[in-house]
Design brief:
InterPro entries: Alpha-ketoacid_DH_E1_comp, DH_E1, PdhA/BkdA, THDP-binding
Radius of gyration: 21 Å
CATH superfamily of the largest domain: Thiamin diphosphate (ThDP)-binding fold, Pyr/PP domains
GO molecular function: pyruvate dehydrogenase (acetyl-transferring) activity
CATH topology of the largest domain: Rossmann fold
Organism: Mesobacillus persicus
Order of helices and strands: EHHEHHHEHEEEEHEHHHH
Domain Dehydrogenase E1 component: 38-324
Shape: globular
Subunit structure: Heterodimer of an alpha and a beta chain.
Oligomer: single chain
Length: 355
């Protein structure tokens, strides 16, 4: 029997429609949790908008904006337990903040400070991975160690739709499926890999259906619906803890440029952004909270002001942090420094070749 392309039917999970109306089953989330989800999205967007401005002012380095993807990142990270691990790409500031990384630490990363690229403050967040797709293999390795040590942690690899065209992604799914590792591959399908649209990344109707080739579970969720993402991720994590890896495709949209070195107006068609702005995740959740009677415009203004103050304070701390020195790089290569590395570090320090 021939297996024809795209025979698999994938239904997208959705709880709120584009106007914030409840159309699916309400997840098991109380009012305090609903407010926390929205406040984290506000914080993530506020940080993102400020970081973009700071880069344009030359005060931080290249930055990859996440505006429009707040629901996908916050909803997924909010479902994690403290012992779970995040293996991020370079656009996961929202997920990283929710899982415990401080804003000042992320600012240090954008400034090229060596401590900004390390797991800080005891959080289970691996250093940002720049090589496309490599974090999937790291997550699988971590999950394998967790299974070997009989731990209850799940390793979550965050990746974009473009990254699913990399070999590392497919190798990671294959290993996870064969060895039944506690892994969740969270794909943020934001429609664009720099200037390449999703339609040129893959011929499959969905990314979620790729899971079937590796013997793991796949599911597609509305990535601009934070409640749908949260409930879907909770179930994905439950399955992963039982040794059943999951591929989650969160359908969302990158409202800004790929990075601050990109100009999306060169390749996006007129009107595309406006169509997705109508599906904005913050706008949708805000409408739901107001309809529920637990939010209003006054609270909205206070929350954005509070978020702005937090970002300002975080940047001031990062900006006042002494610059890292090249000699410190040697301290982050191995857990136990080999003698040859120690000699190299000492020679640089003594000769004063670099700062």
């Amino acid at each position: 029997m021939w297996l024809e392309p795209n025979e698999t039917i994938v239904n997208k999970v959705q709880v709120l429609d584009e106007t914030g109306k409840l159309i699916g089953s309400h997840p098991d989330v109380n009012d305090d949790e609903l407010l926390a989800l929205y406040k984290w999205m506000v914080q993530a967007r506020t940080f993102d908008q400020r970081a973009l401005k700071l880069q344009r002012q030359g005060r931080i380095g290249t930055y990859a904006p996440m505006i429009g993807q707040e629901a996908a990142q916050v909803g997924s990270a909010f479902a994690l337990k403290k012992q779970d691990w995040i293996y991020p790409s370079y656009r996961e500031v929202g997920a990283c903040l929710v899982h415990g990384v401080s804003m000042e630490n992320f600012f240090l990363y954008t400034m090229g400070h060596i401590k900004g690229g390390t797991s800080a403050q005891g959080t289970n967040v691996f250093p940002v991975q720049i090589i496309i797709g490599a974090q999937c293999l790291h997550a699988v390795g971590s999950a394998w160690a967790s299974k070997y040590k009989d731990e209850s942690s799940v390793s979550v690899a965050y990746i974009g739709d473009g990254g699913t065209s990399q070999g590392d992604f497919h190798e990671a799914l294959n290993f996870a499926g064969v060895y039944k590792l506690p892994t969740v591959f969270f794909v943020q399908n934001n429609q664009w890999a720099i200037s390449v649209p999703r339609s040129k990344q893959t011929a499959s109707a969905t990314i979620a259906q790729k899971a079937a080739a590796y013997g793991i579970t796949g599911i597609q969720v509305d990535g601009n619906d934070v409640l749908a993402v949260y409930s879907t991720m909770k179930e994905a994590l439950r399955r992963a803890r039982e040794g059943k890896p999951v591929l989650v495709e969160a359908v969302t949209y990158r409202q800004g440029p790929h990075t601050t070195a990109d100009d999306p107006t060169k390749y996006r068609q007129n009107g595309e952004l406006e169509q997705w702005l109508a599906k904005d995740p913050l706008k949708r959740m805000k409408a739901f909270l107001i309809e529920r009677g637990i939010w209003n415009e006054e609270l909205e203004q206070v929350e954005f002001e509070t978020a702005n103050d937090k970002v300002t304070k975080a940047f001031e701390i990062a900006a006042s942090t002494p610059s890292s020195k090249t000699v410190e790089v040697f301290d982050f290569v191995y857990e136990q420094k080999p003698s040859q590395l120690a000699e190299q570090q000492n020679s640089i320090q003594v000769e004063g070749v670099v700062k």
